[in-house]
Amino acid sequence: MSSSQTSKGTAVITGASSGIGAVYAQRLAERGYDLLLVARDTDRLEALAAKLSTEWGISSEVLTADLTNQQDLARVEQRLSQDTAISLLLNNAGVAIGGEFLDSDIDYVQRMIALNVTAPTRLAYAAGNAFKSRRAGTLISVASVLSLVHERFNGAYNSTKSFVLTLTRSLEVSLQPHGVRVQAVLPGVTRTEIFDRAGDSLDNIPAHMIMEVHDLVDAALAGLDIGESVTIPSLEKVANWQAYDEARAALLPDLSLSQPASRYR
After folding, report:
1. Full-model pTM
2. Is the pLDDT of residue 59 over 80?
3. Does CATH number 1.10.3720.10 belong to domain 10-239?
């Protein structure tokens, strides 16, 4: 059991009512964090908060918010900026969309961008500055393996997750010198409600490609514990990620020069 004497501060979890967010809430409560659970579904949040408070002796608070609503988002930002007990932000809330981008409902795409891009950007800004000033804190952002995939699936969704990955890696450079831990988590296909909400079905995906949500979260937290800034839970050959990152870095010296490459002359 945790107690107030062993609390690690408050973890703010967006998208906490189900799936990845709910399992993170369970695991972080086990680790001794108090919780501030953020999502739209008040009933689910309150049930989870009560359960975790009883099981682990931690404080668990509910903040009902639609992060696509500017006023709701501002309330969460304000809490992150002003509550000095907050020591961790999990930027998890998000939605997906199936099919080809050009066949999508563009209004839905715009709402997806508000939730997947605008909200985590503003929350990371608020939390990042608060953690920087206190020289402590942890910022975790849930991206996707599709952040590395440019040519397949719905390009708008992939792009939102590429944004999250890029922003998180930039924040790592900014915040690490100030004692703040930063991690991007890149799930593959995970058994959550996000597929139903996107109008897709896991029935069409081979079973060996689908990870259970508790395995995903446990792997992500293990990655955090060993100091990974990017965690890809299903990636066995970490050398492949390192080679990818090194190849990307090798491009940098030639990306902006005074003369065109010889093949263009």
Report:
1. 0.92
2. yes
3. no
